[in-house]
Design a protein that fits this description.
The protein is 47% helix and 0% strand. By secondary structure, it is an all-alpha fold.
Length: 118
């Protein structure tokens, strides 16, 4: 039997590692909890796991690229309850809503941008 010279045998592979886009490897809650909890962030690992998916969903709705982290970051911190994140998100909505309407908007009116998706 002629074997292909391109055939890989089990002895040729030491390990295989892959991540299906944040499915297997998530941001480490044990690093983020101590950083965000002083600002009101949740202290449960599960809340931080959910926050990752909230951030990814926000990125998808906004159509932002992998290089654009702001949408993800703001949704993440808002999801774990960081008040400052919510204030900043409201400010960003106002900026985008102002651009979308072509005029000034009032922060007190809590405008929502259709482009941000969060």
């Amino acid at each position: 039997m002629n074997e292909s010279p391109h055939r890989i045998t089990t002895g040729d592979i030491d390990a295989v590692w892959f991540d299906a886009g944040g499915v297997l490897v998530l941001p480490d809650p044990t690093v983020l909890i101590p950083l965000l909890s002083p600002y009101g962030g949740a202290v449960s690992v599960e809340a931080h796991r959910r926050a990752h998916y909230a951030g990814m969903a926000a990125k998808s709705r906004a159509g932002s690229s992998d290089a654009e982290r702001a949408v993800y970051d703001l949704a993440y911190v808002a999801s774990v309850g960081v008040e400052e994140g919510l204030k900043t998100l409201g400010f960003l909505h106002a900026i985008y809503a102002s651009m979308e309407t072509g005029g000034w908007v009032q922060l007190a009116d809590r405008p929502e941008s259709s482009r941000l998706g969060v």
